[in-house]
Amino acid sequence: MSFKRILPLAPSFALALALSLALGAGIAAAQSATPPAGDYIYERGSGQLRVKADGHFDITTIGANAHTCALDGAIVRGKARIDDTTCVVNFSVDADKVKVTTNGADQCRDSCGARAMFEGTYTRPAPGCTDKAVAGARKTFKRQYDAKNYAAARTTLAPVLSDCDATLDWITQGWIRNDLALTQYKLDDRAACLKTLQPLAEDAALSDDGVKENYPPADAEIFLPVVRATRTNLKLCRG
Hints:
Strand order of the largest sheet: 4-3-2-1-8-7-6-5
Number of domains: 2
Helix content: 40-55%
Number of strands: 8
CATH topology of the largest domain: Serine Threonine Protein Phosphatase 5, Tetratricopeptide repeat
Order of helices and strands: HEEEEEEEEHHHHHH
Distance between the termini: 96 Å
Largest sheet: 8 strands, antiparallel
CATH architecture of the largest domain: Alpha Horseshoe
């Protein structure tokens, strides 16, 4: 009887194989993991995922025309069945992000209005970008602005806009842009003012009726005050 000699793996190949296996295990774990406890912000600040230490979660989101989604349950090995339905919600963790998907069951739509959805990516906000932190920064900004300490006011508000872009809701972001732009105007930095307002300039060029034609009724109602403020501030900064 003869035996084949089993050669040892070359060190580089063995290392590559070990890394490959470890990476595969990491991906598998991420796909089935329950998100760490905490609050996560839905895309463009349009909702929130809250996860408790025991795996219970709740999701609330808002879509066009103030339509909403609301659901809750318990996550077990990265999955949650909603009540006694056939809807299964999947949670995939990647660093500070949680991707939420479903099994495609029709009953998954029962948690949402016609123009709302909850599938997508939820991000754990940076410490300075939580709802509480943003509200605190805006309060400090107003106090500094009212005291005509414009340089300090700019220093307080500018990082909120730059650092929290991915998790700010669109209306809050619009107001922050206007507040920062007006502060830049007070500091005689008209170029920065115009740059800050640029993302809102297209809507500001429309009439009120034009805005109402471009947005669903509920969205237009809350956006019009932002648009009107932008028109005023653009005129100031254009001189």
